[in-house]
Structures are given as C-alpha cells and as structure tokens.
TrEMBL record, chain B:
Family from the record: Belongs to the cytochrome c oxidase subunit 3 family.
Organism: Shimazuella alba
Entry GO CC: plasma membrane
Gene Ontology terms for molecular function: cytochrome-c oxidase activity
Keywords tagged on the record: Cell membrane, Membrane, Transmembrane, Transmembrane helix
Phylogenetic classification of the source organism: Bacteria, Bacillati, Bacillota, Bacilli, Bacillales
The protein's name in its UniProt record: Cytochrome (Ubi)quinol oxidase subunit III
InterPro entries named among the record's database cross-references: Cyt_c/ubiquinol_Oxase_su3, Cyt_c_oxidase-like_su3, Cyt_c_oxidase_su3-like_sf, Cyt_c_oxidase_su3_a-hlx
GO terms (BP aspect): aerobic electron transport chain
Membrane-protein topology: Multi-pass membrane protein
From TrEMBL, chain C:
Reactions accelerated catalytically: 4 Fe(II)-[cytochrome c] + O2 + 8 H(+)(in) = 4 Fe(III)-[cytochrome c] + 2 H2O + 4 H(+)(out)
Known EC number: 7.1.1.9
Pathway(s) it belongs to: Energy metabolism; oxidative phosphorylation
GO cellular component, one term: plasma membrane
Protein name as catalogued: Cytochrome c oxidase subunit 1
Source organism superkingdom: Bacteria
Species name: Shimazuella alba
PANTHER family linked: CYTOCHROME C OXIDASE SUBUNIT 1
Cytochrome oxidase subunit I profile domain mapped to chain residues: 32-545
Family that this chain belongs to: Belongs to the heme-copper respiratory oxidase family.
Short name of any one Pfam family annotated for the protein: COX1
Function summary: Cytochrome c oxidase is the component of the respiratory chain that catalyzes the reduction of oxygen to water. Subunits 1-3 form the functional core of the enzyme complex. CO I is the catalytic subunit of the enzyme. Electrons originating in cytochrome c are transferred via the copper A center of subunit 2 and heme A of subunit 1 to the bimetallic center formed by heme A3 and copper B.
Any GO BP annotation: electron transport coupled proton transport
Transmembrane portions of the chain: 47-68, 89-113, 133-155, 176-202, 214-238, 304-323, 335-355, 367-390, 402-427, 447-465, 485-506, 600-617
Length: 334, 205, 636
C-alpha cells in the first residue's frame, strides 16, 4: 500500500515535469536561452551546479527509496532492530565527499564572480546611465548626449557598461536574456557589464519590490547591428522638429506646454517623468502598452488603470479635439 | 533582621546564587546581557557607517568636547566601583553599608545623566539634532539608548533599595540586587566603547 | 480610535449583563472561571497549547492570503487584487507565516516537549514564559488589525527602506509592521532566553548535554540564535520607527542615510531566523524518525555537532541575500563560500536520518509520513539553496520566482512538514488523545501533492524571467500554463489543511485516549509520564542513565524511570495576570504610536511600567501540591 503510494507520487512528479518540459520560456525573457556572454557564463554555472546537485539528489533518493521499501514493518513482524550508535567511517565519507563537491563548485564560482565584475577597456565600451524611477526607466548615453526612456538601444557585440542610479526607492535592473540583475540603490552607483551576441529585442524587468506598479516596470533592450545602431543614434541626436507642420499639432504643442512640460521636460528636478522628445520612436507606452493612438488615449485618460501607483496624473479634462491634438503632437516627436 | 543574622552562619557565601531561582536569574541575566551586546553592536555599526554624514551640520571634530566627556566617563566608572562595594556589603549581610554604596552609585549615575543632558542641549544649540542628518540620528540613537539604559538602571536600583529596606537582604532580594549590579557594569562597559569609538575616534577624524 | 472606545464600552456592558452585574461576586466568578485560568496560566503545557492555537490561527490567515495571491496569478491580466492590495497580501503573508505562524508553532512544541524531555517540572521562568506568549499574541493582533485600521503594510516582509519610508508608504501600514513586530519580537526574545536557561539549569540528574534528545538540542541552539539575532531586528525596527514617526534620517539617502544599513541589519537578523525556524524541524525529524524506525539515532554526536555548526554558520552568511546590492566581488565570494559550507552539516544530517532508518523497522504512522515526505522535499530545497549561493548564478535567480520556490521548499517542505510531524507526534502528550490516523494520512497526501504541484513549477517561472512579488505577468511568454498549475496545486494544500482541522475537531470530541507511551515506541522521558502529564509533570524527578533515557530503562527490563528523589510535596508557581496586563500595555502603546496619539502611547507605557513595578514588588511564593503516587495509581 505505502509502496504503491510512493510510486504514485513519483508518477505525479514526473507528469508535472513532462508538462513543464512542454512549456519553455520565451526566447526574449528566459534565463535558459542566453543571448549575451554574461548570461552564458551564468547559465554554465547554473547547469554545473544543477548537475552536481542532481548527483547528490539521486544518491539520496536511491538510499531513501531502498530504505523505505526494504525496512518497512511487515504484517505480523515484530523485530528488534540493532541499536547502532553510528559509524565513523560512513560519517567521514559523507563529510568529505560533499566538501570535495563544494570545492569543485566554489572554484568556478569565485572565478566567474570576479570575471563578471571586471570592467572592460573604456574606449571599447558603450556607457549607459540607467536611472530607476517609480515605475519607469531612464537611459542616458553620456558619450552621445542622448536621453531616452523605457527602451534602450545597444550595438551587438560591444560591451555595454550600465551605470545604475536610483532616485527614490530600490529597484533592480534585470534583462534575463543578457545577464543577471543589479540593484538600483539610491545614493550609490552600481555597475553591470552586459552584451548581446545577436540582434533582437530583449525584455527587461524590475526585480525588486518598488511599490504598486512594480509588476509593470518593464523595459525593452533593442540589440542592433552597429550600422542600425548608428542610424538610431543619429536620429536620436537630431533635435525634435520645432516647428509644427499642422494646426492641430500646433494646438497640441500648446496643450503639451500647458499641461505636461512641468514633469516631462525636467523643469522641476523633484518631479520627473520620462523625456518625451523622441516619444514617437518608442514601441510602447509607459513601457507596457503597445504604441498606438488608442492605447495612448487610455493611458492619458486613466493612467492608474494601466499602471497602478504611477505618478502620471489623469488627463481627463481635455475635450476630444484637444486630446487628439495632443496625441498628434506627441506622434510628431521623433 | 535578627532572623537573618542568626542564620547567616548556614548561609552560603554567594547569596545571589543560593537558591535555584537565584541561579536561574543570574544565568538568565547574563544571557540577556548577551542580547544587549548585539543590540549595542548594531547601534555602533550604524553609527560608524553614518558618522561622517553630517551634511551642513557640525562634524565630529567640531562638536565633541573631550573634557566634559572625560568627566562623565570618570563619574560612570567610579559608580561601577561603588556598585561592586555595594555587592560586597550585600554578601556581608550589611544592609546599611549596601544601601549607602548603592545611593552613592545612584548619585554618580545621576550626575552622569545631568552631564549628558547638558551635552545634548549644547549640541542641539550647535545645530546637531536627531533630525539634522544621518550622523545626528545615529549619534543620538547610540548615545541616547545608552542614556535610556542609565535612566532605567537608576529607577530600577531605587525600587530595589526600597525592597531591600523593607525585606532585608534575603535569598530573594539578593539575586535582584546582584543582577542590577551586573546591569550597571554592562552599561559602564558600553560607555567605555562609546568613549573610544564615538568621542576619541571622532576627535581623530 | 472612537470606534475602539465604543467597542470597549460595549464589551464591558455585555460582560456586566451576562455576569449578573458588577459586584464583588463578579470578580470571584472571573477568578474561578476557566478563561481566567488560561489567561493567567504560567504552566508550560498550557502555554504550549496557547501557542499552538494562536499559531494555527495565524497559519490559516496567512494561508488565506497566499490563496488569494495565487488566485490573482491564475491568469495574466486578472484584476482581483492589483497594485497596493496585492502588495499588502504578499507582505502580510510573509510576515504572518514567519513571525506569527512558524515561530509560535515552534514555541508551542518547545513548550510542550522540552521540559518533559529534560525531566523538569517547569521552565526556568514560568512568568516570563507567559509574558513571551502574550507579547507575541498582542503583537500579532496589532499587526493584523492593520487590515481594519487604514491598510496593511505593503513594503514586503523584508520592508526594505526607501519603499518603507513615509514618502513612499504614507499610510499607517508600515507603522503596524514596525510596532507589531517589535512587540511580538520582544516576546520571542524572552521565550528564547527562557529556554536557554531552562535547558542549561533544569536538566534532571544524569541528563548531561550529550544525553539530551535531539529536539531539545535543536531547541537549545534555536534559542541561542533567537537571543543573538532578534536584537538586530529590534534595532532595525526602532530605527525605522524613528524615521517614520520622529523624523530621523537613518535610511533617507538625501539626508546622508543609507538603505543598505537596513538590508544589513534585517538580514543579520533574517538569516539566523531561517535557521531558527528550520533547526527545531530537524530536531523533530530526528526524534520521529528514530522512534518510528525503532532505532537509536544514527551518529548522535555528529548530529549535535552539525546542529551547533549550522547555528554558528547561520550568522556568517547574511550577505547572500544581498549579492545584487553591489558590495563587490570579494564580499560576494567570501559569503558565497561560507554559505556553501552550510551544506556540509546539513548533508550530514540527511545521511544520518537515512541511516537511522537503515536496518530499522519502519512504521508509517502519520508523524513518520511527514518525516518521510520531509526528506526528499527538503533535499530539493537544499539543492536549490546551494545553487543560490553562487553569486553569478544568483544574479539571475535573485528576486525571481526561483527564490520563491526555493524558500517554500525549505520553509514549507522543511519547517511546516516538521511542525506537522511534531504536532501529530506529540498531540497525544499535549491533549491525551490520539489524532485520527486516517484523517492524518489524507491530510499528508493531499498537502504533499498540493505542495509539490504549487512550488515545483515555480522554479521554472523564475528561470523564464518572472520576478517575484508581481501581481501580473505578460501573456505569450510561456508563463501562463505554469502559473495555472501552481494555482491549482494550492487547492491540495487547502484541502489538506481542512482535513487537519476536521481531525482536530473530531479528535477533541471523540478521540482515542492516549497511553503514557502513546506510540508504544517512546524513547525519551516525555513518554514515561501520563498523557497529558499532571501539572507538576514528574511526581519524582527521574534519574537519567543514558541517551534515550526511557529506552535505556526499557532495555534493562524496567517499566518506568528510576526516581532520583523521594515522593514529596512539589512547589508550583502561582498564576499571574501581570503578563497579559503588561502585553495589553504594550499593545495600547503601539496603537498609540501608530495613530500618532502620543497620550494613548503614554497611557500604554504607564501600564507597562506599572506592571513591571507590580512584578518587582510581588513576592508570591507559589503553592505546594501533593503528587499522586505513580506506584499506587491515581486518586485525582
């Protein structure tokens, strides 16, 4: 009976395993599908430790199942087991072998820990200053004089030095496909060195509880070939069009100046929202909604429904035309 | 009282651990002091991490006056000595002697507190307050917690003197008096660390 | 506040009506009532039961919170509990389970068992024992009242500052966290101190340290960890309270403070806390496995050594919770190696358990089932523990669902399984009745399956990029199916817990009466006295002649322990209302601080100090009872 149940649960666990093997992570978000050298190193270590631990697990489970089956009390049996005190030999074995296994684990661990912290030569790296705010990300390229938000563009194959700053609460900067995370700690600058081996869009997450909107503090990493990256860079460096081309854009600009500029152009250093100069180039709104006019309306009318806790106020006092003009103006920012 | 002197010949040398409850109390109190050590260690760690964060306020060098603090230290160290003398008297079953030394201990403790309050008032006047900077917060948290311990110790010892006068030196009052004296020594040791790590180190920079 | 006063007055009126008015008799009646007896008891066995009931109560509350969270996560884009509400749930779930469920349940078993295992009539400080319980209880109550009074804390059970400061958590929630935990933390500290002194000073003749049953050993080490870890929490909470209530700047970086200090202090407490809750489970396992294998514990000395070593190393590894804070590769490497080292003594324990069963005659009674379920589950948790200790890999795991899966494997698979084993094992000793084996087995299997179904898939959630503490996730990134499975698994644990509750109710009504040696296999002293034990535990203090004291006597052919003293009257401590009074004082003071009502806080503190004075001037000598002679049978 008992034996049967043990098999039953084993069956159940393996069933779950098979089910899980059926689902695999998304290639833009999974630790198990690395797209950068840091993530690759980390995955190697994960597999190495998992392998060692699996050996330990198998040994334990083998003894465990054997003991349970072999030494369970059988019907009508009343045996007095020998009251063994212990065995020095055995105890030394299961002290020394784990120590050896741990040393085999500790050596690459320490090695990789130092490798990952090593700064690459400055002239070959792209420096990006990341700042985590409640609940959005700002990216500044000091080398190029570019400021953007929610979406960070990087050239494939180059080392990127992310310098991570904080202004309000703790956050954590995480791009699973490219490598492990680093905390955003107000008052100090943390660094993490990442690179992308192939072009693509990778998803970034905030991994430290930072308030109501923590779950939605997403960002995207656009890894581009050098040529594409340079093109993007040039576009970003160009000043946004200053002269409105249509009357509704002009009206939109007026509305923007009256309602939005206080937070969105860095006038007040204490109240800060994302820089919207190149807003139309972004693929998302607030880092979570796909970029289109409908979603932009939803966001403007009721930001809390999109991202709870956001500091963005409701813009529900504009009439339909005004709202459309504002959106037209924003759409021209590229 | 007469009762006690009569039976004193049968009584053990250390009255505080003569009974089982007494033994428990003394051991328990030692362990409690272990916990208190961790408490102060955390406060010290925080202070050492934040002591240079004085922002626009005065720094440690500008602020501390070693003469005053040295006097406070002398007072508190002497009080530890008088507390030992009180315990010696207690084990001699000399109530009057014990109470006298305890009162002297209390007076010294009170004098220390007065100096500390004066010092704090002076600092606040200089613009170094609990709220002025992280240095201020960690300083008052550490030194203030010590001060609160001294205050509590004084009140505690007063109530114990009252009990000793009412009930005499018995196997019940003795452990209480003994652990209060342990407590007093502990406060003293903490102060020695405060003197070195806060004031001396603060002067050095 | 006015609501509270109205409720209080109403309660007084009702009490007056139901008791026939306010008169002298009223007090008499109160004093002789059973409720008063339980409120003022200093008997470790009754306090153990109080801890058990309170712990189970909070366990259910924490479980409900967890279930609600899993319901929200069943599908992406759910809108049951979003944003702040979800953060409140996750904060209260963690805080409740650690501080108000795991800790009291451990204290429940320690209270019920440790004095019996060492052959003592009571703990060293019965008064403090009661005080510890009531402080814990009122602290927990205060914390949970936050749901009614202005919102629960929502900054996570770790309450990292930045987020936990006034600026980012403006409501009273975090104040409830700070003061509730402070009060219950003091209670825990007192409890730990009490057990240290008890185990050092109160052992029966012949009960040397290397003859202590392993549960007592783990209780001893756990108490030591409590004593040296909780003050760090006290200081951290005090600072957070000052920052929130009195405008200090410990954690505000714009004023020179540092949030990293909170992280250090919290984990200097928090990591030993992990061992505080797991070590007693190890102890329970050791006793249960040895009993139901009918064999002496394999490698007793190395088990003791491993326990002490784990306790010691537990203080040197806290930075492994902070690998991503940016403390540098040197710090990270040192703490990584120290963390890995803990795997060695833990491994020793697992192999010793396996070899205790080797060659034994294993009976699968419910406690043993939990112990048997514990081993593979805990080993899985230990495996991921070693994997998490490697900083480069941890940069990926940290704050993802992988971590959630890991610590539920050790905290549920380790601590909760251990506690269930302990509750089933010692229930007959505590209540004098056997829990139903049938219901117990249903409880075990549903809970075990539900548990693995819930938490095993969560490893993959983390590896697939789902951070922890999120109220929703994206569609089409491979997370939906796993989240569904995980939520379905919760049903198993809920059903299991319901079986357990039914079992308790059923047993209290018509449970089978338990023998002194309830399982017929008892090895340690608690099985040598009646179930439940008389208030003085041992009519005559036993003489211990070896490890597994009762088993030694059984092997020598004796039916009972050899007494070490003649039969005589036994001194008992008097019950006291001061502990509950003092705790109520703390409760009022805490509430006063939370609502920023300084007069209320002052009243509370006055009550506390008044109670302290009452206690200091209280020379109650207790009373004596005449034990019944075990040889002649009961007279009652």
């Amino acid at each position: 009976m008992e034996r049967l149940r043990i098999w039953r649960i084993g069956l159940l666990i393996s069933l779950v395993m098979i089910l899980l093997a059926g689902c695999s992570g998304d290639p833009t978000l999974s630790v198990l599908d690395p797209k950068g050298s840091a993530a690759k190193i980390q995955l190697n270590l994960i597999y190495w430790s998992l392998g060692l631990m699996t050996v330990v697990f198998v040994i334990v489970i083998t003894i465990f199942v054997y003991v349970l089956v072999r030494y369970r009390k059988r019907k009508g049996q009343d045996r007095m087991p020998e009251q063994v005190h212990g065995s020095t030999k055995l105890e030394i074995i299961w002290t020394v072998i784990p120590i050896a296994a741990l040393i085999a684990l500790a050596i690459p661990t320490v090695q990789y820990t130092f490798d990952l912290a090593e700064a690459p030569p400055a002239e070959e790296t792209v420096i990006i200053d990341v700042t985590g705010y409640q609940f959005w990300w700002e990216f500044k390229y000091p080398q190029y004089g570019i400021t953007t938000a929610q979406e960070v563009h990087i050239p494939v194959g180059k080392k990127i030095l992310f310098r991570v700053h904080g202004k309000d609460v703790l956050h954590s900067f995480w791009v699973p496909s490219l490598g492990g995370k680093v905390d955003v700690v107000p008052g100090r600058v943390n660094t993490v060195i990442l690179d992308a081996k192939e072009a693509g869009v990778y998803q970034g997450k905030c991994a430290e509880l930072c308030g109501s909107g923590h779950a939605l503090m997403d960002f995207k990493v656009f890894a581009k070939n050098q040529a594409d990256f340079d093109k993007w860079k040039d576009q970003m460096k160009q000043p946004a069009p200053t002269v409105a081309t249509t009357s509704s854009e002009a009206n939109g600009e007026k509305i923007f100046q009256q309602n939005c500029i206080g937070c969105h152009a860095g006038v007040n250093p204490n109240i800060q929202g994302p820089n919207l100069n190149k807003f139309a180039t972004r693929t998302t709104i607030a880092g979570v909604l796909p970029h289109n006019d409908e979603n932009l309306k939803i966001w403007l009318r009721n930001p809390q429904s999109v991202k709870p806790g956001t500091l963005m106020p409701k813009i529900d006092y504009l009439n339909k035309d005004e709202l459309n003009d504002l959106i037209k103006y924003l759409d021209s920012r590229k | 009282m007469a009762n006690q002197t009569n039976s004193s010949t049968e009584m053990p040398n250390h009255l505080e651990t003569a009974t089982f409850d007494g033994k428990n109390k003394v051991l328990g109190f030692w362990l409690f002091l272990g916990a208190e050590t961790v408490l102060f260690a955390c406060l010290f760690g925080t202070y050492l991490a934040l002591r240079n964060q004085s922002l626009e306020g005065p720094t440690t060098q500008e602020l501390f006056d070693l003469k005053l603090v040295a006097l406070a230290t002398a007072l508190l160290l002497t009080s530890s000595l008088t507390s030992v003398l009180a315990m010696i008297k207690m084990n001699e079953r000399n109530l009057k002697g014990m109470v006298t030394w305890l009162v002297i201990t209390l007076v010294l403790g009170l004098a220390f507190l007065v100096l500390e309050i004066y010092e704090f008032l002076h600092y606040i006047h200089e613009g170094h307050t609990f709220m002025s900077s992280a240095f201020g917060s960690s300083f008052y948290a550490l030194v203030g917690t010590h001060g609160a311990h001294v205050t509590f110790g004084i009140i505690w010892i007063i109530t114990l003197i009252a009990q000793a006068i009412r009930r005499g030196i018995t196997t019940e009052t003795a452990p209480k008096l003994f652990v209060s004296s342990l407590y007093w020594h502990f406060i003293d040791v903490v102060w020695v660390f405060i003197f070195t790590l806060v004031y001396l180190l603060g002067k050095v920079g | 506040m006015p609501t509270l006063i109205v409720l209080l007055v109403l309660a007084l009126f009702l009490a007056a009506i139901f008791t026939g008015g306010y008169n002298k008799q009223f007090f008499e009646r109160v004093r002789s009532s059973r409720t008063w007896d339980w409120l003022t008891t200093v008997d470790h066995k009754k306090i153990g039961i109080l801890y058990l009931m309170a712990g189970l109560f909070f366990f259910i509350i924490g479980g409900i919170e967890a279930t609600l969270m899993r319901l929200q996560l069943f599908a992406p884009g759910n809108e049951l509990f979003v944003g702040r509400t979800f953060n409140e749930l996750l904060t209260m779930h963690g805080t409740t389970m650690i501080f108000l469920a795991a800790m009291p349940l451990i204290f429940a078993i320690m209270n019920a068992v440790v004095p019996l295992q060492i052959g003592a009539r009571d703990v060293a400080f019965p008064f403090l024992n009661s005080l510890g319980f009531w402080l814990f209880f009122f602290g927990g109550l205060l914390l949970n009242l936050s749901w009614i009074f202005g919102g629960a804390p929502d900054a996570g059970w770790t309450s990292y500052t930045g987020l936990a400061l006034n600026e980012y958590s403006p409501g009273p929630g975090v104040d409830f966290y700070v003061l509730g935990l402070q009060i219950s933390g003091i209670g825990t500290l007192i409890g730990g101190l009490n057990f240290l002194v008890t185990i050092i000073n109160m052992r029966a003749p012949g009960m040397t340290f290397l003859r202590l049953p392993l549960f007592t050993w783990t209780a001893f080490v756990t108490s030591g960890l409590i004593l040296f870890a909780f003050p760090a929490l006290t200081v951290a909470l005090l600072m957070l309270m000052f920052d929130r209530l009195f405008g200090s700047n410990f954690f505000d970086y714009t004023m020179g403070g540092s949030t990293v200090i909170w992280e250090h202090l919290f984990w200097i407490f928090g990591h030993p806390e992990v061992y505080i809750v797991i070590l007693p489970a190890f102890g329970i396992m050791s006793d249960v496995i040895s009993t139901f294998s009918k064999k002496r514990l394999f490698g007793y000395n190395s088990m003791v050594f491993a326990t002490v070593l784990i306790g010691f190393l537990g203080f040197m590894v806290w930075v492994h919770h902070m690998f991503t804070v940016g403390l540098g590769p040197i710090t990270n490497s040192v703490f990584a190696v120290a963390t890995m080292a803990i795997a060695v003594p833990t491994g020793i324990k697992v192999f010793n358990w396996l070899f205790t069963m080797w060659g034994g005659e294993i009976q699968f009674k419910t406690p043993m089932l939990w112990a048997v379920g514990f081993i593979p589950t805990f080993v899985l948790g230990g495996m991921t523990g070693v994997m998490l200790a490697l900083p480069p890999a941890d940069y990926q795991y940290q704050d993802s669902y992988f971590v959630v899966a890991h610590f539920h494997y050790v905290l549920v698979g380790g601590t909760v399984f251990g506690l269930f084993a302990g509750i089933y094992y010692w229930w007959p000793k505590m209540f004098g009745q056997m829990l139903s084996e049938r219901l117990g087995k249903w409880h075990f299997w549903t809970f075990l399956i539900g548990f693995h179904l819930t938490f095993f898939p969560q490893h993959f959630l983390g590896l697939f990029g789902m951070p922890r503490r999120v109220f929703t996730y994206q569609t089409n990134v491979g997370l939906e199916r796993i989240n569904e499975i995980s939520t379905i698994g919760v049903a198993g644990m809920v059903i299991g817990t319901i079986f357990f509750l039914i079992n308790i109710v059923y047993t209290l009504r018509k449970g089978k009466k338990a023998e002194a040696d309830a399982w017929g296999l008892g090895r340690t002293l608690e099985w040598s006295i009646p179930s439940p034990p008389p208030e003085y535990n041992f009519a005559q203090t036993p003489l211990v002649r070896g490890f597994d004291a009762l088993w030694v006597e059984k092997e020598a052919g004796n039916k009972s322990m050899t007494p070490s003293e003649p039969l005589g009257s036994i001194h008992m401590p008097s019950p006291s209302y001061i502990p509950i009074l003092m705790s109520i004082g703390f409760f009022i003071a805490g509430f006063g601080f939370i609502v920023r009502g300084i007069p209320a806080a002052a009243i509370g503190l006055v009550v506390v100090f008044a109670a302290l004075f009452l206690r200091s001037f209280d020379y109650d000598h207790g009373y004596h009872v005449e034990p019944e002679d075990p040889e002649k049978g009961g007279k009652e």
